[in-house]
Each structure stands twice: as C-alpha cells, then as structure tokens.
Amino acid sequence: MDEGRADARLVREARFGPGRARLMDAPAELHPEVLAALERVGIERLYSHQAQALHAATEGPTIVTTGTASGKSLCFNLPTLHILCEQARARALYLYPTKALAQDQARALNAFGLTKQVRPAIYDGDTPRAARADIRRKANVVLTNPDMLHVGILPNHAAWTELFSNLAVVVIDEAHVYRGVFGSHVAGVLRRLRRIAALYGTNPIFLLTSATIANPVELAERLTGLKDVRLIDADGSPTPGRRIAIWNPPLTDEALGTRRSALAEAAELLARLVREGARAICFMKSRKGVELLSRLVKQELDTAGHPQLAELIAPYRAGYTPQQRRELEGRLTRGELRAVITTDALELGIDIGELDAAVVVTFPGTVASLRQMWGRAGRRGRGLAVYVAGEDALDQFFCRHPDEFLDRPVEAAILDHESPLIFAAHLLCAAHEGPLDRADSEFFGPRMQAHAELLVTAGRLRARVARGGRGDGDDDGTGGRETYVPRHPGSYPAAEVSLRSASPDSFAILDVSTGELLGQTEAARAHSTVHDGAIYLHQGRSYEVRDLDLRHRRALVAPFDGDWYTQPKRETSTAIERLLDRRTTLGVTLSFGEVSVTETVLAYQRRRLSDHAQIDLVALDLPETSFSTQALWLELDPEPTDEPAETMVPLQSLLGALHATEHAQIAVLPLIAMCDRWDIGGLSTNLHPQTGHPTIFIYDGHPGGIGITRTAFARFEELCEDALRLIAGCRCTDGCPSCVQSPKCGNLNEPLSKAGARLLLERMLAAAAAAPL
Ligand SMILES: [Zn+2]
Ligand SMILES: [Zn+2]
Hints:
The protein is α/β, with parallel strands linked by helices. The protein contains 25 helices and 32 strands.
C-alpha cells in the first residue's frame, strides 16, 4: 500500500473501527423445541435484529436488510420453525434465486435437528420425478426457485393442495436479485401465489431479506403487492474493523486516458497478500478474467520463488456440484487454500464466512454488490477490502469521487410489475390457474380489468358471465358475475414465459459444441447481440455466434477463446407514441412516455480485447426490427440567441454534444436505478421530426419497459449533475472510455464532443441554479 500512496495509485484509504454485537435473549414465548434447537446449534443469545425480526414477523410482512454474514437467515428461520412446531399441519415455502442457495438453506434447516417437526425438501428442476409426489404430500418446508413456482407449482396447484391449504409462511431470500426484468416477472409470480393461496383459504406471511439497497420497503411492496411492510435494518451483529482501499492503475497515456490493466495490478496485489499469509477472495466480472487472473497470480508467485504458494490459488467456477463447492469452501476456511478467484455471479453462493482480504477487480455494477463483496473481509475481527478500478466510466467516476463512493447511498432496486407484456403474461397464466374475476384486483391492482380486456382483444382470454354469482355482493345486478377464462384452455402459457426475458418473443441460444440450450434472448435484441460473428457473453463465458437462424429463431454459438470482442453498428430511430408526463427543468423540456424504437443492425466491428484497437468492420444483412418501450426525452431550444456567443454550443458540434451528453447520462444512470448500461438505449438528433427540436432520447432497452427511465425522469437533475461530474473530472482531451465513449454505441462513438457536452450540461445546471425555487 505504501508504494501506492507514493505514486497516487491509492486514491483513497479509509478505516472503519470494529462494532460490538448487540445481543438479546431469545423470547421465552418461542416454542420450547425451537429454544432447544437453538441450544443444539450453539446459539445462546440472539443478535438484536434477529429478535426484532421475530417480533415483526408476528405482525405482518417484514424485510431484513442487515450486512453480509450477520445471521440473516435466522431472521426468517426462527418465526418459521416456531410456526411449524406450533401447528403440525402448517407449511412454508422458501424461494431462492439459485439452486445452490436452496441447497445451503436445506442443510441449515436440517442442522437444527428438528427432524419430527421440520421436513425440508428441495423442489426444482433437478428433483427426480419419482420423489416429487412424496415431497408434495409430506414436506412442510418446500425450497424452490421463482421459475419452478411459475412453471411447475402454480399451474398444477391442484396437486399441491396440502401446501396451499396450509401455507403459513413464504420466505423470499436475497430479494434484491429480483429487480429489472426478472423482478418484474417475480412480482407477477408472487401475486399469482397470493391469489392461489387465497383460493385455498390461506393468507401466508411474507418474510424477505435483501442486501443493503436504497429502497428495501418499496422493493418488498412492489414484489409482493402487499402494503405496510416492516423494515429491520439495524444490524446487531459484531462488525470487524476494516481497512478499505480504492486502487487506480496508473495512466499510461494521459491524452487518450489509457491505464495499466486492472488485471496486472490485481495480480501483484493478490500475490503480495498470499505471500504475507493472508486468506483472500477476489471477485471479477468475467470467467475469462477469472482464469487469466489465476494464471497471472500463479506466475507472479512462481517467479518470486514461491511455487508452493502458487499451488494454493484456485479459480472458483460456475458449474461445480454442491459437494465440490463445499469442499473448496472448506479448504479455504481451513487455510488449505490461500486465495480463490471467482466471478461476481457466484457471490451469492459462497459460504466461507470471513477472510482476511476481499479484492474486487473492476466495478461490479452496483455499489450495493461491491459492499457485499467487501463484506467478506474481516476474519479475526479485522480485514482489508480493496477495489481495483478498471477503465470504464463508472470505475473512473468513483476514483475521482472516492469519498462519495464510501458514503454514497446505495442504488434503488427497480421493477415494474405492470410492464405491459410482463403483466399480460402473468394475467394469462393466472386465468389458466383459475377464472379471473373483479375481486382479483386485490392481487393484481386496479388496472387488472383493462389488461384483461386487452387479452380478450388479443384472442387469449374470453369474458364469461358466471350465472348465479357467489351471492357475496360482487355480481353486476343481472344475476351474473363477469369472469375471464382462457380462450384455449388446453394450452400451457407458463411454459411460454421465461422470467428472464421481457417479451415472450425470444430467440434460443444453443451451444453447438454440446447441444446445450444456454438461454434465450429477447427477439428485439437478438439482431444486435447474437448476429453472425458476434461474441456473446453468457454467465461470464464467451461464445462466438456461428449462425443466427432467423427462421427458426435461434442462434448457434460455440465457446470462444480469441482475443477480440464485437460491437454492432446500428441505425436507430424513435417515434413518440404516447406522452405520459412532462415538466420543464434545467432550461429544457423533459418528457416521459411510450416510444417505438426501430433498429437495423448494419455491420459489426471487431476490436482487440487488449487495447480496443479496431480489427475490421464486417457488413451484415439483417431486416429492420422494432419494439415499444418507455423513454424519457429532453428537447433543447435550438437557438439560444439571447446568450453570449462564447457559451453557445457551435452548431456543427451540436450533434456531438448531444450524443456525448446522452452517453454520459446513460453511463451514470445505474447510480440511481440498479441496472446495467446494457439495459438502456439512447438516441440523439439535431432535429427530431416529432418534437421539431434537438432531442436526446434515453429508452428502456426491454420491450414494454421496466421502470428504469421512469426513475430517471423523476431524478433527472441528479442524473445531469453526475453526468457533468463524470465528464468534467476526466483528464482526457477529446473523450475516452472513462467518460463519454460507450462500449455499446450503435454509431461506434461517432460523432462525440466532450467539450460540447460539458458546455451543455453546465448551461443546464446553471439554469437550475438561477431559477427561483
Ligand atoms: Zn475521458
Ligand atoms: Zn452512441
């Protein structure tokens, strides 16, 4: 660290003192069997947040957001175990985002030794057919994932009578994972779950946990559709003392803004930590990066004359069986391994307690997940947490504002259960699970009927008047009660809906080397992500697209090991379909509404990974595609004639200024709403035919939209402030990947004017300062 301080690579260092545990006695009202079980697993007293969660759970839905390794699972396990011991027939449903986490939790439940009262079972895609009927009848804690609930359990609720007619508790662990497209779908699945439970006469309590996010209560309410969710966020567990370091690789070319690679810096740092006897974990985004870094660290140790230490470094890959994972985790906690290097995709699945050091290489996408990774550092009461910055805009933004990075409130998890396509998909599934009627707006909200009518128009539902009614006052005065039933009762709509994709219209991605189905991509994005020759990243692994088969709607890919990546060149236009909201701010007219985005992918560029140099441009012949989504757009006054000439953006660079402003705004949008810049699209034009003005559009990249741009519309001023700081703080001369260049620009970053964008944003923010409040 000292040398880093000397040459300014260490941009910020901070120390946090250790915090003492706040302990409370387990309440005496807890069922005696549960109290005995706590003793068996060696828990004498509870952390204060665990006791508070137990109390809150008796009152209503609750979300717990305490830190990494703070004993969060006990917060929902205690109330659940209590209920299961009190009521022999009661059932609980646990939802996990990954199979591995469900397995860890089943193990934790079994460890309580309440074999008579608690019978957990995992029900997912891997559960043998022969075991399924038994689980449905006997298990009283069913651990599954949202996908299985959606496609396997809810549509077959009649086979799950035992579960639904006794459902007392629903646990949703790691709820922050359910955001964006996935979260919007899970919100639909959970509304269907509450409706089916009600059909069987139960009204379970919902207990959620989440990593620290800006809006835990809002997330819980949007996910479940419930109101008055209680928040437990005062962490009573002991926190270790922690030293935090933000590390920026040195510049190699100031004008171009290039820096030494974060990988090389991280390799040196890790090798040093290992030599000093530390146990460390290192997080990286891509699997390829993980393999490369493992190799570099081993080399570093070998050449420094420590081949025996090089043996103690292991990459931690996806695709391990739970047994292999546990073996690796065990070797690490016992000190038989010194360092594991892993992708952030595995961050959730790791059960290693705490280590001496946690090193995060390049920004993992959200401050929330960076803090979670850092939370791994703290063995024996102290730890070192390091962030090695990459060259992307957000990485460098944080290096220039490190203080704010440490104090900045974490991002909000955004989802929109009423995103039109997603909402329609779940209403259709619900109608197959049982006729929809007006009373179901209790679960689906006041706009349910309007959406159901659209499904009638689309030929998927049929309105039917149920004669005689239920006599409970909801008939329409003619003795009938209107319901919606499937037009094609024999179909199975849940099977057509993937929870990972905003639109049912999708392309399959097949690995030709194994025949395995890797996943799906939204049809609206297929041309730009899986065109012929594209390098496609899936779970941290690279694939090359061999053939995009438009007729069969599939992309054939093969594992890829080359040293280039691809960037599509696109022609995009937007048409405003519906204005939903408008305000004047910062001297511009800001609008939010629905737009249709039309796009043609014309070609793609191949670029070298090492230095981003262009290799070639390959033409493509693809038809035009279009989709509807949500967007915000800002219109500028084209002729600010009353301003002094030197503050005016010269007309010839106006487009470059708009374009660079758009890129900077998109780059910092993830600071407000948890999303990836790949989830957002943009378009800038000197003159939009509909607005008649220079206009910047920022649109949700998913058909229908999932609420990202709605949040950006509401917090537009912050977006502009962050964008200006991103640009103003960068030392490059004409724009670089750390400020206004975008790795996904459809115009291949042409034209861009960094100076123009700076001027434009400064003028907007000055207008705000001048305006009366
Ligand atoms: Zn720059
Ligand atoms: Zn662009």
